[in-house]
Amino acid sequence: xxxxxxxxxxxxxxxxxxxxxxxxxxxxxxxxxxxxxxxxxxxxxxxxxxxxxxxxxxxxxxxxxxxxxxxxxxxxxxxxxxxxxxxxxxxxxxxxxxxxxxxxxxxxxxxxxxxxxxxxxxxxxxxxxxxxxxxxxxxxxxxxxxxxxxxxx
Length: 153
Fold this sequence. Notes:
This protein is an all-alpha fold. It is about 65% helix and about 0% strand.
């Protein structure tokens, strides 16, 4: 712990907290963050859950869901830039939706939803910030963006 850094009064003792903390410490500066994320997911998948108490498992599920939503937000941020630069064309895709369907293995509706959300959130920075921080989930962000698109800001 660095000097001057203060931890919250109650530090969770659940395995998920310690796993996340250890994974963050293991991240190497300059290394590919997506590759490091994959390594952390591999470590999570290898965790033996048989002796994990129900309460701790429940808390880890809530935290995992929050992180999945944050990853969806990051996916949307990167998708928006990929859309702007038409990066999908170099892979031979006619549209971003077809690229998502083919290479990201999304259903047609999921691909359309991701594209609409990525494009719509550019006009809703507060919603995007809340999503990226984990305050709201993917579904909330999608509903807000769709509502604004249909009704107007």
